[in-house]
Design the sequence.
């Protein structure tokens, strides 16, 4: 299977994602330019972290209007796995491909540190190979990562099993202390209605090699491969 | 060309009369007003190194690995496996005093461009910060602004901030120090250079457009800070845009990959003036520049404004004329400006036209090579008396209470609240994040190699004895690398001082260089570049006049043959032995304990004992590399007691320790060179013993790892002390209390 990683001006985890998918995991990777209009030949797509277009208007707001985003929408509509990491998550919410929005951290500060998330749903290609309740260690690094949606919408997401990851402590307990940014209900990641589009604030690509302290992030990418082959 | 009266031109350049006479002598005429402004900035201390250049020649700058030494935008050293690193540190003190956020942010942007100009991809940042006491609102405000500026630029530009240090003293209250270092990676055969070549080659201006910001910034950095002028000075502080900085990195690396770029330099201090004159002078060629072709973002800019603007995120390239479109296309693809503004000429003159008129016509080396001064140096009055003061004459403290006091001190306290504001992981190279003795990066393109990074400097020591203090700072950096198992490759330094026109300040400057040189020679590590920041003086300074402490900051990079063999600093396994490697003797002279309790520097720091220290450092490094030890941490600020507490907290365990005999405060909190606390399983002690013997290094077993508290016993000069038990939770609460 072939992965695509989108390069927006100001993305800065683009090369990291390519490194993990191509060099660590051995998949073919297409580097997609923000002005590209076609995603032909790409089976699964990553929107990486960073500060696309400087994040000067509102994080992800400008990138959501980039030429490539029409093709991203079409790919998502076809059911292909699309993962937004950090700024990529913000872009997907701004583009309307994922519900909710990401506000400034409750501390009003950028925070970068290891974090733990609990898998809440295995009904996405990125978690199909995982079990609900599993705890993954992946770092966070963001200033605007507080997930927010109106209470009714959050309830609907919970009901539909679209909350995919929740911040927790290393033992899987969801506590206020384990929530790094003030996200509502400790939500770290959500899925689209169909489940194939997922966004999360933690960085799986920074947790994909033992040398860097965790390989839990790799399981998200491995999971997609299993799901696609399974659906094959 | 307009001829100003000599009086006008002399006033416009703002230099001493002797400098102005020298300009006229070199030119054979008076400079016109535009030229006078250019000399004024290029011959400022910040750009011209007039007071420092002769003294800096003392530093050792070569090793078999050095590909590019001082004089280029950054030093370059071979790592092996076809790769090299570029490394450079610079100060941004004055701008940060006036505008903490933008001053610090542009400091980060500037040092990134220096490394980029060597053709290297920037992969790590360090910062060394000095502020006034953080229990004062003003110091906290400056600190918060500087940290936010470093985070704001570094995080968005996508270069991880992997380490640094923060120390406090009253002398930095109004004159904070912001020193930032950048490390880059480049293929050894693709190192870029700045010497212009090839008459007829195109001079390409690339990056952000030019505005009126930062005009005269370099000259501003060469004067003492004046509170009343702070508002007016704000216009001298440049504004950075990390988004454009990020685009500039990617576009420049693409541009260099075309192979068509002959020379490149960033436009930082003194902007276009500096880049054109230095590139031409280094290549012994000339340049013809047309200011009408410079991409501007404001209208009506005068020639001298365009020439002196310090607008950020701009590079100047010399490109083979026939390939210039390919290079320009790389910048335009990333949405940046790229315009040919002139060409290289065989005739070594810098000619600038504007509106069809020649506004500048001079030999570029007369601008680029400022005169070299030979300043007066004299030993400060009262130095011997200061050394004679008894640093132990402090109110008797319960040593347990004193330890908690030091853990709470900003110099020792956890900086987590700061470094968690920095993205220290982007780039997926960070193996050891901030918070350890040294940061460790893996090399993705050349596994299993790794690099360790640290920056260290101690103004307290240097305020008492700059030569010893500087040497001890170099040893401290090498010791930090040893804890990671890394062998020193190169040093870059920032030398922060008061006015060099004061003989006592200049004496300290020369002594500092001597100390750095001696220590680097003992370790066999070259100084490949750096920067000098003079005129760090303001109300509240404690040094001669109102100067800051003499504050050299040493950034050191080291190599790990196998990055997986690096080890932690914290005690890990219950039952492991704790060993003190090195001479247990420390001194309280100019120590943190002494300064924190007495409020002024007294006594003299320890003799660096360079040769012995170098052996101890090598021994510690080898113990890590051989996998003999489970952890190693070096004792620095606050001595052995603080280091024990840090190793306990880092590992999340207690320890039971018997300290060496001697006076209590000196043994617990005394500071000295090259002392390491290692932990290891008892069965490895024989192997460590053999290693220590081979290096001729003293060691002693202090106790063992385990329990819920740090338990200390000592036989002092007044009888036994302890056991003193400090629960882990109590130490952690003190250590993590720093509010910034």
Sequence:
């Amino acid at each position: 299977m072939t992965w695509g990683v989108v390069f927006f001006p100001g993305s800065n985890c683009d090369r990291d994602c390519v490194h993990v998918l191509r060099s660590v995991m051995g998949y073919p990777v297409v580097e997609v330019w923000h002005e590209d209009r076609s995603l032909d030949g790409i089976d699964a797509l990553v929107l990486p972290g960073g500060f696309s277009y400087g994040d000067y208007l509102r994080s992800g707001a400008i990138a959501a209007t980039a030429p490539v985003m029409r093709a991203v929408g079409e790919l998502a509509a076809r059911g292909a796995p699309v993962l937004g990491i950090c700024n990529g998550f913000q872009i997907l919410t701004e583009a309307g491909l994922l519900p909710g929005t990401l506000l400034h951290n409750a501390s009003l500060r950028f925070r970068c540190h290891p974090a733990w998330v609990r898998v809440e749903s295995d009904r996405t290609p990125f978690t199909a190979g995982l079990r609900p309740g599993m705890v993954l260690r992946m770092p966070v690094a963001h200033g605007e990562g507080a997930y927010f949606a109106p209470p009714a919408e959050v309830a609907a997401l919970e009901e539909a099993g679209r909350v995919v990851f929740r911040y927790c402590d290393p033992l899987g307990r969801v506590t206020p202390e384990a929530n790094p940014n003030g996200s509502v209900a400790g939500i770290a990641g959500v899925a689209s209605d169909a489940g194939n589009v997922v966004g999360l604030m933690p960085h799986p690509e920074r947790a994909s090699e033992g040398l860097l302290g965790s390989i839990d992030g790799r399981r998200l990418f491995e999971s997609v491969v299993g799901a696609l082959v399974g659906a094959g | 060309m307009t001829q100003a009266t000599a009086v006008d031109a002399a006033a416009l350049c703002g230099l001493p009369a002797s400098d102005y006479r020298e300009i006229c002598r070199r030119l054979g005429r008076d400079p016109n007003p535009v030229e006078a402004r250019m000399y004024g900035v290029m011959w400022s201390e910040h750009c011209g190194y007039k007071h420092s250049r002769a003294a800096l020649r003392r530093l050792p700058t070569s090793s078999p690995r050095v590909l590019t030494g001082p004089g280029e935008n950054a030093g370059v050293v071979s790592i092996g496996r076809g790769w090299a690193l570029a490394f450079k540190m610079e100060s941004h003190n004055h701008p940060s005093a006036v505008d903490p956020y933008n001053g610090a942010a542009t400091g980060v942007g500037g040092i990134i461009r220096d490394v980029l100009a060597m053709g290297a991809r920037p992969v790590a940042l360090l910062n060394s910060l000095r502020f006034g006491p953080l229990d004062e609102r003003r110091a906290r405000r400056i600190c918060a602004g500087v940290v936010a500026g470093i985070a704001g630029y570094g995080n968005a530009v996508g270069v991880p901030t992997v380490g640094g240090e923060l120390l406090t003293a009253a002398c930095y209250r109004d004159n904070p120090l912001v020193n930032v270092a950048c490390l880059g990676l480049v293929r050894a055969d693709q190192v870029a250079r700045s010497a212009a070549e090839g008459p007829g080659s195109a001079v390409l201006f690339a990056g952000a457009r030019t505005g009126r910001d930062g005009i005269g910034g370099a000259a501003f950095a060469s004067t003492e800070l004046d509170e009343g002028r702070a508002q007016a000075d704000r216009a001298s502080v440049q504004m950075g845009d990390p988004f454009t900085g990020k685009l500039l990195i990617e576009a420049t690396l693409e541009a260099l990959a075309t192979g068509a770029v002959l020379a490149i330099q960033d436009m930082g201090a003194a902007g276009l003036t500096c880049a054109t004159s230095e590139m031409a002078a280094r290549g012994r060629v000339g340049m013809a520049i047309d200011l009408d072709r410079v991409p501007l973002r404001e209208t009506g800019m005068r020639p001298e404004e365009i020439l002196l603007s310090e607008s950020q995120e701009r590079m100047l390239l010399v490109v083979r004329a026939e390939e210039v479109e390919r290079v320009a296309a790389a910048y335009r693809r990333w949405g940046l400006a790229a315009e040919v503004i002139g060409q290289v000429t065989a005739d070594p003159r810098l000619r600038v036209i504007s509106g069809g008129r020649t506004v500048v016509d001079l030999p570029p080396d007369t601008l680029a090579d400022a005169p070299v001064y030979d300043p007066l140096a004299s030993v400060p009055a009262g130095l011997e008396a200061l050394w004679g003061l008894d640093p132990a004459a402090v109110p008797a403290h319960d040593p347990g209470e004193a330890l908690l006091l030091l853990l709470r001190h900003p110099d020792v306290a956890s900086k987590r609240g700061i470094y968690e504001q920095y993205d220290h992981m982007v780039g997926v190279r960070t193996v050891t994040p901030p918070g350890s003795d040294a940061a460790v990066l893996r090399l993705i393109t050349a596994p299993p190699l790794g690099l360790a990074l640290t920056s260290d400097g101690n103004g307290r020591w240097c305020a008492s004895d700059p030569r010893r203090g500087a040497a001890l700072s170099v040893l401290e950096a090498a010791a930090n690398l040893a804890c990671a198992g890394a062998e020193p490759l190169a040093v870059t330094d920032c030398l922060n001082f008061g006015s060099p026109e004061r003989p006592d300040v200049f004496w300290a400057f020369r002594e500092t260089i001597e100390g750095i040189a001696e220590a680097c020679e003992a370790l066999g590590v070259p100084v490949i570049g750096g920067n000098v920041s003079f005129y760090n003086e303001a109300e509240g300074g404690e040094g001669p006049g109102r100067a800051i402490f003499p504050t050299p900051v040493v950034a050191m990079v080291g190599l790990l043959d196998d990055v997986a063999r690096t080890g932690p600093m914290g005690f890990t396994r219950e039952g492991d032995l704790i060993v003190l490697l090195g001479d247990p003797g420390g001194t309280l002279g100019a120590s943190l304990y002494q300064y924190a309790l007495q409020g002024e520097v007294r006594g003299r720091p320890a003799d660096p004992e360079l040769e012995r220290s170098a052996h101890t450092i090598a021994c510690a490094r080898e113990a890590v590399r051989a996998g003999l030890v489970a952890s190693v941490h070096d004792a620095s600020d606050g001595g052995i007691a603080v280091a024990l507490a840090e190793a306990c907290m880092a590992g999340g365990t207690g320890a039971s320790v018997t300290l060496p005999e001697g006076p209590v405060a000196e043994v617990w909190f005394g500071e000295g060179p090259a002392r390491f606390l290692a932990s290891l399983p008892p069965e490895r002690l024989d192997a460590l013993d053999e290693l220590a013997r081979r290096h001729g290094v003293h060691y002693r077993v202090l106790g063992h790892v385990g329990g819920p508290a740090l338990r200390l016993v000592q036989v002092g000069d007044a009888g036994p002390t302890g056991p003193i038990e400090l629960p882990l939770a109590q130490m952690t609460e003190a250590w993590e209390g720093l509010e910034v």
Notes: The first helix of chain A runs from residue 14 to 24. Chain A has a mean pLDDT of 96.
